[in-house]
Design brief:
With 246 residues, this protein is an alpha/beta fold. It has 2 domains: 4-102 and 215-243, NAD(P)-binding Rossmann-like Domain (Rossmann fold, 3-Layer(aba) Sandwich); 104-212, Dihydrodipicolinate Reductase, domain 2, CATH 3.30.360.10. It has 9 helices and 11 strands. A hairpin with a 4-residue loop joins strand 9 (193-200) and strand 10 (205-212).
Length: 246
């Protein structure tokens, strides 16, 4: 049976790429909505919905996924704690793949970041994350940068909230504290996405960098996640699960 995939945000740049990748993967485009549209109808007529809209729509779309018993692939960034809680509630009833980034390379970067953080003590190695995106991006740090920070924190057996974040340094800030993760966000031009994680010690620096040159890599990953999710029991997953590295 052909998989029916719906797209929330189909009129945007990512939405158009997603529609192309749905066809390339041999699935059926069940429908799509833009800023305004019948979201309930989209979920009712799809086996799985891919949502690359924005944080404001996440709670409503997660609720609809649970109500209609349909899998959800969520790629929106900048969700609040309340919005993430709504996604978690939906995942008790349906499979939800919620990822900061759907590029396979980025998710391998997350896995490496966690392993390296576990091996490099924070008392000796400061962790700094630098990201750059196109000038239209509205949230900072990016969801991928936050994902990297969470991976580093997990490697150090803490949450990002426990470790702490340092960003927007300006003026006479004093010496860097030991432990928190530093974030720097750059915006300009039409950069698709660049992320660098730096572990800096007195005697060495180690840098991991990922650069995306085409947004299609996110669309391809999201469609791959859609095919995977419909075969899973209810739960909250990410791309590491889809790739078999989580």
């Amino acid at each position: 049976m052909t998989l029916r995939i719906g797209i929330a945000g189909i009129s945007g740049r990512m939405g158009k790429l997603l529609a192309e990748e749905v066809a390339a993967a041999g699935a059926e485009l069940a429908g799509g909505i833009g800023r305004l549209g019948d979201a309930a109808g989209l979920f009712a007529g799809s086996d799985v919905v891919i949502d690359f809209t924005n944080a404001a729509a996440a709670e409503a779309h997660a609720t609809l996924a649970a109500r209609h018993g349909k899998a959800l692939i969520l790629g929106s960034s900048g969700l609040s704690a309340a919005q993430e809680a709504a996604v978690e509630r939906a995942a008790r009833q349906v499979p939800v793949v919620y990822a900061a980034n759907f590029a396979p390379g980025v998710n391998l970067l997350f896995a490496l970041a966690e392993r390296m953080a576990a091996a490099l003590p924070p008392e000796q190695y400061d962790a700094e994350i630098v990201e750059m995106h196109h000038r239209q991006k509205v949230d900072a740090p990016s969801g991928t940068a936050i994902g990297l920070g969470r991976a580093v924190a997990r490697g150090r057996s803490k949450t990002l909230e426990e470790v702490g974040m340092e960003s927007g340094r300006d003026g006479h800030t004093g010496p860097r504290a030991t432990g928190p993760i530093g974030f720097a966000a750059l915006r300009g031009g039409q950069v698709v996405g660049e992320h660098t994680l730096l572990f800096a010690a007195g005697s060495e620096h180690i840098a991991l960098t990922h650069r995306a040159f085409d947004r299609r890599v996110y669309a391809t990953g999201a469609v791959r996640a859609a095919h995977w999710a419909v075969r899973q029991p209810p739960g909250l997953y990410d791309m590491k699960h889809v790739l078999g590295i989580g």
